[in-house]
Amino acid sequence: MAVSSSSFLSTASLSNSKSTISFASSVSPTPIPSLRRVVFRSSIPASSHRRVMTVRSKIREIFMPALSSTMTEGKIVSWIKTEGEKLAKGESVVVVESDKADMDVETFYDGYLAAIVVGEGETAPVGAAIGLLAETEAEIEEAKTKAASKSSSSSSSPPAAAEALVPSPPPATSSPAPAIAQPAPVATVPDGPRKTVATPYAKKLAKQHKVDIGSIAGTGPFGRITASDVEAAAGIAPSKSTVAPPPSPPPAPTATAATAKPTTTNLPPLLPDSSIVPFTAMQSAVSKNMIESLSVPTFRVGYPVNTDALDALYEKVKPKGVTMTALLAKAAGMALAQHPVVNASCKDGKSFSYNSNINIAVAVAINGGLITPVLQDADKLDLYLLSQKWKELVGKARSKQLQPHEYNSGTFTLSNLGMFGVDRFDAILPPGQGAIMAVGASKPTVVADKDGFFSVKNKMLVNVTADHRIVYGADLAAFLQTFAKIVENPDSLTL
Amino acid sequence: MQSALSISFSQASLPILNRPLCSSNAGPSTPRNLRFCGLRREAFGFSPSKQLTSCRFRIHSRRIEVSAAASSSAAGNGAPSKSFDYDLVIIGAGVGGHGAALQAVEKGLKTAIIEGDVVGGTCVNRGCVPSKALLAVSGRMRELQNEHHMKAFGLQVSAAGYDRQGVADHASNLATKIRNNLTNSMKALGVDILTGFGSVLGPQKVKYGKVGFPDNIITAKDIIIATGSVPFVPKGIEVDGKTVITSDHALKLESVPDWIAIVGSGYIGLEFSDVYTALGSEVTFIEALDQLMPGFDPEISKLAQRVLINPRKIDYHTGVFASKITPAKDGRPVMIELIDAKTKEPKDTLEVDAALIATGRAPFTNGLGLENINVATQRGFIPVDDRMRVIDGNGKLVPHLYCIGDANGKLMLAHAASAQGISVVEQVTGRDHVLNHLSIPAACFTHPEISMVGLTEPQAREKAEKEGFKVSISKTSFKANTKALAENEGEGLAKMIYRPDNGEILGVHIFGLHAADLIHEASNAIALGTRIQDIKLAVHAHPTLSEVVDELFKAAKVESPASTTAQGVKVAV
């Protein structure tokens, strides 16, 4: 036993005398010394190798090194450097795991780690590009674009590259799904240089979840940013939950032990070739808010609204830049002004919090996420200002430039799927608000009046979800009646 | 236990019996007792009855001798030389002094030890011993908190928590127990423990006494200074013992701060970072050099950083000095001002809940009366030659005066002090001995542990260049070790630096599970001069972690063949 294992073990000792592998580059006039040493080469196409020396390309690819003669692929254990970090010749950049050991890979060049193409925990074949190195800071962006195009064609697109700034398709002005409040401030720019104090773990988490630490308000001692602040900002569950799982189910009575696997979950296994894509920070925030919403007792009330007059008005004001969203927000705002309880919220389960402003959050789908820009004082601003404001907010949302107060100050949410032909749906109430309105499509409908005459009117179904701790059925009914009246006699909207 | 037995017989009278029982007596010049804290015979009183009988007899006879010593007429073990009160007086009852005292008694010297504080010194009371208690706790916490690790075993553990006072008590109880064992072992052997601060009055003359009491003056044929060290606190740092602390305070674990800055990333800092992060603190290292863990082999420190620093709640600032640290007061946190280590430009200000100063240790040599014998300290250290003989201001040896341990600064480790003490006793009892410091292992008890002996790779390469020999490296990963994998602890690396021409081991560095225990095969080989081509034929039980070291030996490529007789090994000193 000892002998046989010993011979096995001895193969595992490393044959090379130095396990730090350095990058060589094909830019250098000497030929590639051996695969093991080549990690870098110029990003110029291989066919133009001869001319490479004259071309001043300063973006180099970092390649998966061959750490042993048998190695065909390697796993990235960790990136020691982060994107944008400066590298000095000889510094370790990445740790690669082979079948035998983990090895640090060093750089032969000074420069910047411009982009990580293969993320931590992922595997790449020997010789594949795993990252890009830019010689100057100015070339980082260029390298990032390269990395993005690289990763879009690669099946294992790393989260880092996915974050690269690729123009997103124009978002629908309203969202395909209801409500979310307070997503992570993904790319908010800090106001200015101020001293932020963050604990070591908070910094680590922020880096991991790509949260800008400067955008987080610290709640820890002396105003410092703690891990839980970052977790809240990233919308993830606190990691401290080392709470034990409930006692495991008793072992299967049949003691065919050999194959009995201690499965702790009853979920069926993934189908072959399925893929798992982790949530982005924004998606995590949505997920967290949706789970939280389950703790609020909600109910729904629907109401048909005649939109002939509204449609006519819309045709009139459209050339002046007024959108349907602004019209609906203004109508909701005016109705809320008369029914403050629907604009209230229940924060602690013991009291009504009447909000001093009527701020209408409008759900918007943006690429891979959902955000709720807020039209503040929707009841007070006139239709044109409101429309202008809305355009501005949508633009900011697309470029992920919304400031926290521009997406988390809503007191009531509007979600409109009408433009997709959806005739009715119900929305989930976002935590911290009293009600949310789901607006369906306006459709020509045959109606009979009290005298028995039939006519065709445009009808739209509006469905409001509310927190029954503070808003009761009659409140909601009264609010909807007011809303319908405003929509059906929309002249007041333009005042 | 066996060595306890051997004391009760004179070595000369029972050489054959003695040899197998106490092998260290048999090896002619092997430095013995290289154990970390030199706690040999601390369990003296718990020996099986057979030994106990002989011991009791021995103690009894010792008592008689002691009382007889007043008339200075007794013969045999422990009788002082004619005109001296003692053969050997040791100033300082730390691990170094203790090791020397036991060896001295064994060699038949009448011995006294002077202690101004508590027996056991830094190691037992404020160092290795209580820190191991805290690290034992942190190791278990770490394991219990690692859900992934537990799951891999198929174990389920409910939320692990701890009681701070309970942890602190474990550390202080351990220190008390070891201190008592140490005291008892010396008492049992008849070492006179004298209380008070000792200082050198002149050649072969020492005074000691408590503050406010008249001094006692004693004479001794030989004197050993073993006064140890205290935590070093750089200028500008205000230690209040509550929020700005040294290892002395930290070991009492009076609080577990949410966020603690540790100044210095050597052994002490690393071990405390392991303890604090396991107990839930976040840690910021402040290191003056450009890299963390500067004292370790670069490859080991790189891997250690990846395992011990990066995945934990730790960040760090390197290349900076903490120029000013103000304790928390008036509702403000601990403020740390950082300056660039090279340019001295201000770099940053940190606000943390606590700061631990782990910038090393300073020799405790004040008030030793060194001026009486014209000895000038160098940065506080007492200059000595390679036989621990004290050198005076004119570069001349001071006769009959030795200095061991942290006070001479050669190698500030408890077991090194003890080994130096034993070496001195060997010399004063007529056998020349020079301790090979390169054979003294060192360990850092993080999880996993780091251990080393001999040269680092850069040191070895420098030496090789100078002396014109070749250096080779063999390496193995814990991932290839069955026992490590069974424990789900495959993270680790062992590396050996050696001469391919003659098979000499220059250094061994291990980072991995139980590394501190694994190093001794290598350190013993270095101490005994065993060559790789011989030791690689030795057999290791399978499956054990010791096979990691075995792998190193087997992976080495040595040009010279194994010696014909494995025993024919010369001792390297």
From TrEMBL, chain A:
<feature type="domain" description="Peripheral subunit-binding (PSBD)">
    <location>
        <begin position="197"/>
        <end position="234"/>
    </location>
</feature>
<feature type="domain" description="Lipoyl-binding">
    <location>
        <begin position="59"/>
        <end position="137"/>
    </location>
</feature>
<dbReference type="Pfam" id="PF00364">
    <property type="entry name" value="Biotin_lipoyl"/>
</dbReference>
<feature type="compositionally biased region" description="Low complexity">
    <location>
        <begin position="174"/>
        <end position="190"/>
    </location>
</feature>
<comment type="similarity">
    <text>Belongs to the 2-oxoacid dehydrogenase family.</text>
</comment>
<keyword id="KW-0809">Transit peptide</keyword>
<dbReference type="Pfam" id="PF02817">
    <property type="entry name" value="E3_binding"/>
</dbReference>
<feature type="region of interest" description="Disordered">
    <location>
        <begin position="237"/>
        <end position="264"/>
    </location>
</feature>
<keyword id="KW-0808">Transferase</keyword>
<protein>
    <recommendedName>
        <fullName>Dihydrolipoamide acetyltransferase component of pyruvate dehydrogenase complex</fullName>
        <ecNumber>2.3.1.-</ecNumber>
    </recommendedName>
</protein>
<keyword id="KW-0012">Acyltransferase</keyword>
<feature type="compositionally biased region" description="Low complexity">
    <location>
        <begin position="254"/>
        <end position="264"/>
    </location>
</feature>
<dbReference type="InterPro" id="IPR045257">
    <property type="entry name" value="E2/Pdx1"/>
</dbReference>
<dbReference type="GO" id="GO:0006086">
    <property type="term" value="P:pyruvate decarboxylation to acetyl-CoA"/>
</dbReference>
<dbReference type="GO" id="GO:0009570">
    <property type="term" value="C:chloroplast stroma"/>
</dbReference>
<dbReference type="GO" id="GO:0009941">
    <property type="term" value="C:chloroplast envelope"/>
</dbReference>
<dbReference type="GO" id="GO:0004742">
    <property type="term" value="F:dihydrolipoyllysine-residue acetyltransferase activity"/>
</dbReference>
<feature type="region of interest" description="Disordered">
    <location>
        <begin position="143"/>
        <end position="195"/>
    </location>
</feature>
<dbReference type="GO" id="GO:0009534">
    <property type="term" value="C:chloroplast thylakoid"/>
</dbReference>
<dbReference type="Pfam" id="PF00198">
    <property type="entry name" value="2-oxoacid_dh"/>
</dbReference>
<dbReference type="InterPro" id="IPR000089">
    <property type="entry name" value="Biotin_lipoyl"/>
</dbReference>
<dbReference type="InterPro" id="IPR004167">
    <property type="entry name" value="PSBD"/>
</dbReference>
<dbReference type="InterPro" id="IPR036625">
    <property type="entry name" value="E3-bd_dom_sf"/>
</dbReference>
<feature type="compositionally biased region" description="Low complexity">
    <location>
        <begin position="146"/>
        <end position="166"/>
    </location>
</feature>
<dbReference type="InterPro" id="IPR011053">
    <property type="entry name" value="Single_hybrid_motif"/>
</dbReference>
<feature type="compositionally biased region" description="Pro residues">
    <location>
        <begin position="244"/>
        <end position="253"/>
    </location>
</feature>
<dbReference type="GO" id="GO:0045254">
    <property type="term" value="C:pyruvate dehydrogenase complex"/>
</dbReference>
<keyword id="KW-0450">Lipoyl</keyword>
<dbReference type="InterPro" id="IPR001078">
    <property type="entry name" value="2-oxoacid_DH_actylTfrase"/>
</dbReference>
<dbReference type="InterPro" id="IPR003016">
    <property type="entry name" value="2-oxoA_DH_lipoyl-BS"/>
</dbReference>
<dbReference type="InterPro" id="IPR023213">
    <property type="entry name" value="CAT-like_dom_sf"/>
</dbReference>
